[in-house]
Amino acid sequence: xxxxxxxxxxxxxxxxxxxxxxxxxxxxxxxxxxxxxxxxxxxxxxxxxxxxxxxxxxxxxxxxxxxxxxxxxxxxxxxxxxxxxxxxxxxxxxxxxxxxxxxxxxxxxxxxxx
Amino acid sequence: xxxxxxxxxxxxxxxxxxxxxxxxxxxxxxxxxxxxxxxxxxxxxxxxxxxxxxxxxxxxxxxxxxxxxxxxxxxxxxxxxxxxxxxxxxxxxxxxxxxxxxxxxxxxxx
Lengths: 114, 110
Hints:
The structure holds two protein chains of two kinds.
Chain A (H helix, E strand, L loop, with lengths): L3 E4 L2 E4 L5 E7 L6 E6 L5 E7 L6 E2 L10 E5 L2 E6 L8 E9 L2 E6 L3 E5 L1
Parallel strand pairs in A: 2-11
Antiparallel strand pairs in A: 1-3, 3-8, 4-5, 4-9, 5-6, 7-8, 9-10, 9-11
Chain B lengths: L3 E4 L2 E5 L4 E7 L6 E7 L6 E7 L4 E4 L2 E6 L4 E6 L8 E9 L2 E4 L3 E6 L1
């Protein structure tokens, strides 16, 4: 499977600020996804990051709050904008596995908003 | 959208016994069903998956069964070991979008 890295691994932010999370893959992949995992909870899909076009957002998530970039087939960013304590979560990117529906996850970014 | 329910939420087993986790899904279009294991502070790791054209799949001590008619699938872990202690998530996918169950915390008692 692909090697996936995320930056930063963790951060503590003040409310009202924004944080951009990076996801890097060591090989080209068509599909990249962003998930949120709130403390002690399951994973929820935020959006699918599409290369060359706007991201596709799931119900409950909007571009103004979670803008996503996908400049090429190995890299994507997720920004958490105008943060509040409710945004404290783990944010994970995932990628498809060699054209199959299998998804592999990055190590996650632990975000705490004060 | 897809709704995945997972039971039980917690499961405690004696080392060497079997563990079974069950999931149901709502969308009959779902055709891919992975299981992930997440240890504390780590990323979810794919442990086994099954596609809708298969009824059962086994990989050493873990197996997954799928009943498409009833829309449910199960994870079976045999001969449990302490390193099996983790949170397990089932998921269902239609067109690459994964919907996850709420998770099962498995504790293997030595």
